[in-house]
Amino acid sequence: MSQLAHTGTLTWKLKVANAHLLTGRRPVLIDTGPANARALLAQRLARAGIAPGDLGAVLLTHGHADHAGGAAALITPDVPVVLGASDRLITERGHNPELVPTGPGARLVKRFIDPDFPPFTASVHVADRMPLDQFGLEGEYRVVGGHTAGSAVVATPGVLVVGDLVRGGFAGGSIAPGFAQKHYFSDDPQRDLGLVVDLLDEYRPTRVLLGHGGPLDVSAARRRIDKLAGR
């Protein structure tokens, strides 16, 4: 196995959203959870034997408060924070744009969302694709849009991280987390799910990691994702 290869993952639920730790030559964090989960994130990293300064990078799937809210505390000269370029204004303002609910449950969830978080400027803004070998991982960070204009996925051998293009389960993923569903918020959920279908065809992962719920076993979830996407 190459020293740059993806060697493992850990997923932590941080209050309302997931963060994922990918380990290759160096550990890379995908998403940070909300700002009020910073202590919880530090605890999870410590249990994994990792200090924040050990991270090769922080890769954000998008700029919303529940995924990027803790990023301001992690940026250092040695730990770059990577973001899709079109989400730059969201994180520099530290405020979610208007969220479009996809159903009655989402309208209820929206009432409890804090849209504000500590603003920050990401170290790296990606407009299209960026290889991960500089962080010790095999794969790429790729901006695909959808849920937000700058939404990005992280593709490594066998694993695809798709952020909020799709969610898993009910009650924030506490029940049936591997049951694929349209996300709570999107102005076009069918488009987002279609993006997932195309990415599954291109990268052919065995597991899909999500921002809420999951993971998804592709062999079990693919037919449902196709149906939700109208394919």
TrEMBL record:
The cross-references to InterPro entries, in alphabetical order and at most eight, read: Metallo-B-lactamas (IPR001279), NDM-1-like (IPR050855), RibonucZ/Hydroxyglut_hydro (IPR036866)
Name a Pfam family for this protein.
Answer: Lactamase_B
Domain Metallo-beta-lactamase, by residue range, is: 16-212
The protein here is known as: Unannotated protein
Q: Which organism does this sequence originate in?
A: freshwater metagenome
Which classification does the entry list for the species?
unclassified sequences, metagenomes, ecological metagenomes
